[in-house]
Amino acid sequence: MNTNQVHIFDTTLRDGEQVPGCKLDTKQKVIIAKQLELLGVDVIEAGFPISSPGDFRSVAEIGKAVKDVIVCGLTRAVMKDIDVAAEALQTAQRPRIHTGIGVSDSHIQYKLRTTPEKIIERAVAAVKHAKTYVEDVEFYAEDAGRADNEFLARVIQAVVDAGATVLNIPDTTGYCLPQEYGAKIAYLRDNVNGIHNCILSTHCHNDLGLATANSIAGIQNGARQIECTINGIGERAGNTSLEEVVMIMRQHPSLGLYTNVNSKLLLETSHMVSESMGMMVQPNKAIVGDNAFAHSSGIHQDGVIKRRDTYEIIDPAEVGVDQSKIVLTARSGRAALAYRFKNLGYNLTKVQLDEVYQEFLSIADEKKEVEDSDLEQLMKGVAA
Ligand code: KIV
Ligand code: ZN
Question: Is the CB of 138 under 6 A from ligand 1?
Answer without folding.
Answer: no
